[in-house]
Amino acid sequence: MVIFKKTQDIKEYISSVQAGGTKYGFVPTMGALHNGHLSLIQEARKGGQAVICSIFVNPTQFNDKKDLEKYPITTDADIELLTRAGCDVLFLPSVDEIYPGGTEETPTFDFGYLDTILEGAKRPGHFKGVGQVVSRLLDIVNPDKLYLGQKDYQQCMVLTKLMELTRRTKMKVVICPTTREADGLAMSSRNRRLTDPQRIVAGVIYQCLVSIQTKKESGSFAIVRKECEDLLTAKGFATEYVALADARDLTLLDEYNKDIPMVALIAAKIGEIRLIDNILL
Ligand code: PAF
Q1: Contact 255/220 with Cβ under 8 angstroms?
Q2: For the whole model, what pTM was predicted?
């Protein structure tokens, strides 16, 4: 695996390899890699593509300073994992490489409705930062495909919209299934901050999503939402939302609508750790 820290160096390298006909799949990350990230690398390797991964803890997407300060940094272990997973190129930039003119001077995008609900409402400025950094990374690495995890469902929608807003019509977004622990907990870099007792109950988020999915045939979402909120509270979570939405555009729904594809989404905090997850219905 070739590692680059400088924007100019990776740009030159990638364009010279692309000139020889190589296609690139890109997996952007903030490091602290786990099997969920590695599944994206595996997916990106399919079809003989080369894979670029970036590790950059983007300060502009953290609405909570404490969350940024505590974000796990495990670069040596990440390099080891990426090498073993068959990643071809790693971009490890500094903040100055990504935002040479400062964060204020780097373009941001308006995601409209998508930035006003759920994660957008709970984490003001978060998607502005995500759009800003991903657009910048795409300018630098210029991949053919962008690989994202379904765990961050709303982020996938925001970044699909980014492609539209920035007229990257040829760049394909590939959304890969969520990788889960044995008890259903969605893999996330934040999981490593859970204490043992918190980790034991954390699988309840997935149990709630499955019960929302199961009851779609005969139940009322209003009732199952209340059951989920009560269960989360009983297990020590502070629930931020248990929501149901149209999977195509995230229009929020009060009740099940079997005529459309739906997605159920949960965000809840246990102690200081905020977890999110979703399931398609
Ligand atoms: O999902 C993440 O890890 C981040 O939001 C991303 C897409 C790497 C942008 O910083």
Answers
A1: yes
A2: 0.96
